[in-house]
Write a structure and sequence with these properties.
Length: about 400
């Protein structure tokens, strides 16, 4: 993507996993809701009906693309709320239902903070036992450990939550196996997957067959920030986080963000339409980038094997380099990348994902995520290949 930063170098944006630029068709689809169509979708008049129609059309599209029924789609304010609703909603309902009996949640150790923090809060407020299952050196979920955890905790397990693809390194998890193991060893438990990163690249219904709950977020797909959805399978008991007007069949009160819902549906539809071609195109660009940097820069480690990760992810550890300093140098050259999960203050936290994979702290210190996406062109990769080796050499001094 060759966009000009005002007064600066041409912009090379390889941070799609943080937030992808909005697609033109999404902006167009959302535009009417910024002016002409402003009614409250729960109302009775023509303005309200127009808004409601758009909302329900968006719901139908999202349901179809995620392999769900429209009534199973709950609109949220993004991936974080979807994850919170899945974890706290299911566990809240389970604790109430089980009145006094022990309740447990099993997650992977590499979940996004939106899941891990929700599990922590469930432990602190509801007394839920939280069991974390680790990953191997590629970031792949440990199914043998899951089996052990389900055997140990047995009937106490109310929820198993494993992301479909990791946001930092991009590793895709074997959700079909997670579901099968859970059904056989803890049939009372429900399975949630955070598909926030995966939805841009994978057919979620195919990659995570039989899961009960799925989180997605629009801004990772070329949609707007602040819009997402949680699919809640029919019969899955869930307590709302927001109460009030009873929207979303009592599962999420609050006036709907109609434009956001339309944006999410349009972005998801575009991603699905382009999936096959884009996976091949972007995957080839990613390979060129990774091979080029591994060749041009000494002492670089690729965090996970390429055949295991999403096509847009390239996570490299540059030894002897401080990742924050490298991000700043690259930014000065007009290259936007990410140095791992930043908290709201913008400060970098040590990566729990790389730690779980056993990456030594010295390598993790120099880890950079290049994430390619629908706006990435060959020139972007060539520019990064021209800039990074020099920047790394400068920092290594
Ligand atoms: C895997 C994963 N889950 C959840 C989230 C949170 O989504 P949102 O930014 O829409 O709140 C993110 C965003 O970085 C993510 O990558």
């Amino acid at each position: 993507m060759d966009r000009q930063t005002p007064g600066g170098p041409p912009l090379t944006y390889l941070d799609h996993a943080a937030s992808a630029p909005m697609r033109d068709e999404v902006v167009e689809a959302m535009a009417p809701f910024a002016s002409g169509v402003f009614g409250h979708p729960s109302g009775q008049h023509r303005q309200a009906r127009a808004a409601r129609q758009a909302l329900e059309d968006a719901r139908d599209t999202i349901a179809e693309l995620l392999g769900a029924a429209p009534r199973e789609v709950v609109f949220t304010s993004g991936g974080t709320e979807a994850d919170n609703l899945a974890v706290l909603g299911v566990l809240g309902a389970a604790v109430r239902r089980r009145s006094g009996d022990a309740t447990a949640v099993v997650s992977s150790s590499v979940e996004h903070a939106a899941v891990l923090e929700a599990c922590r809060v469930a432990s602190a407020r509801l007394g839920v036992v939280h069991e974390r299952v680790g990953v191997d050196s590629q970031g792949l979920f440990d199914l043998a450990r899951l089996e052990q955890a389900l055997e140990d905790l047995g009937g106490d397990v109310a929820l198993v939550t494993v992301m479909l693809a990791n946001n930092e390194v991009g590793t895709v998890q074997p959700l079909g196996d997670v579901v099968a193991l859970t059904r056989s060893l803890a049939p009372q438990a429900v399975v949630h997957t955070d598909a926030v990163q995966a939805a841009a690249w994978l057919d979620v219904a195919q990659a995570a067959p039989g899961v009960d709950l799925v989180s997605v977020s629009a801004h990772k797909l070329g949609g707007p920030k602040g819009a997402g959805a949680l699919v809640v399978g029919e019969g899955t008991e869930i307590e709302p986080l927001f109460v009030g007007g009873g929207q979303e069949r009592e599962r999420r009160s609050g006036t709907h963000d109609v434009a956001g819902a339309v944006g999410l549906a349009t972005a998801l539809a575009a991603a699905a339409r382009e999936r096959e071609a884009e996976s091949a195109r972007v995957g080839a660009l990613r390979d060129r980038l990774a091979d080029g940097l591994l060749h041009a820069v000494p002492s670089v480690i690729e965090a996970a094997a390429r055949e295991l990760v999403l096509p847009g992810h390239c996570h490299l550890c540059f030894s002897g380099v401080d990742r924050e300093e490298l991000v700043v140098l690259l930014d000065e050259a007009g290259v936007c990348v990410s140095a791992g999960a930043a908290c709201a203050s913008g400060a970098l936290e040590p990566s729990h994902v790389l730690a779980a994979m056993g990456v030594p702290a010295a390598s993790a210190r120099g880890s950079i995520r290049f994430s390619l996406g629908h706006t990435t062109a060959a020139e972007d990769v060539e520019r990064v290949l021209a800039v990074v080796p020099e920047a790394v050499a400068r920092l290594r001094g």
